[in-house]
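notes to self, project folder thing:

trying the whole complex as one job this time. last attempt i did each chain seperately and stitching them together was a nightmare. two parts in total, labels are on each line so i dont mix them up again. if this works i'll redo the older ones the same way
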Amino acid sequence: MAIDPLVYEYVANEENYPENAVIIEEGSNAYWVYVVLEGQVKVKKRTPNGMVTVNTLKEGAIFGEIAFFQEGEVTRTASVIADGPVQVGILDTERLITDWQMLSPQLKGLIMSLIKRLQEATKRTIAMVVEST
Amino acid sequence: MAKDKEKVPPPICLQYKSGDLIIKEGDYGISIYKIIDGKVRISTQSGNTEVNLATLGPGEFIGEMTFLTGSTEPRSASARALEDCELEVWHPTRLSKEYEEMPPILKYIANQALKRLMRMNKAIGELIAKRAEIKGLAQKDLQASQRLFYRKEWDHECVYRPVGGSAKLRLLGRIKDISMSGIGLEVNATNRLNFSHQPGDEFFISTVLPNRKELDVTAKIVSIKSARAPGRLSMGMSFTDMTDEARKRLGFFLMP
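result (full assembly):
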């Protein structure tokens, strides 16, 4: 998937990671939003049965957005690990926040609700996968 | 601008009673619901199984998927009030213009989140259906091995009346155990004075399961003897009739 120019426009910084490098660590505090520019990453969550891969993200995929849209104390809900050498872009947080604050409370509420649902659905899927293994 | 605003229908507040269906899967609708008060369960039908996708509370939204996908597809899940609820209903025009015009990067991110959520929901549905299938197979095995019925001890009140008797009649009984095939009932011996309690006699039995769902069945007496408690009769009964719904409810209750 080619990177949408509109996403490039927001990339403030580029970072390269070797295979298996931890880009985001579950439980840590941060709210950068990333985009995969080259290569791919794995999204993993800790479970009683060890690490479970939730998703594999390819070029153009955004990650880290759950923490960005959360209110209050923010911790990473999953780890993101380089699946082979990967280049990621860090989006310009200030611009994102400015854009976000332009939205009406209604639309903000709707998007935050969506993000929360995604987070809960992910938790639930993992719980079920762990249970059945 | 002011003119545009006037065209948007104002939000309406709706009250729902516990158990009410708010959105039915497969129906068409475009409204967005915001939960003001109460809890709502989102579920979907996967095969014969009702799959609970989420429980939502105040501040959360229902129907937002239809809005965000801009789809004209029917509702992808049902929403039911788990308790008395108050919801604000928005007409989508209220937000659609703003959504169209919002910074493309946010739209890009929201769209990806939406796609991931849809994928997760699908995965949950498949996992639950698979689990139900395994359970179904296990139950079949149980039936094949005969008389290995899972019988659950359950001390619980019920009302019963003879089949063919007045529908207003309510005799009190106490359930002692229950399985998919029958029920053990303890009743006052005095009940026998007014109504026949012989092997073969058929009764309607009603009780309420712990999930507060009613269970209505028909069963006939197979054996009857004095219970250990004085003045009480103990009856072994086998079911003679049960609706599919009752079978489902009972099956759910008996699940280990």
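what i see at first glance: The longest strand of chain B covers residues 214-226.
need to look closer tmrw
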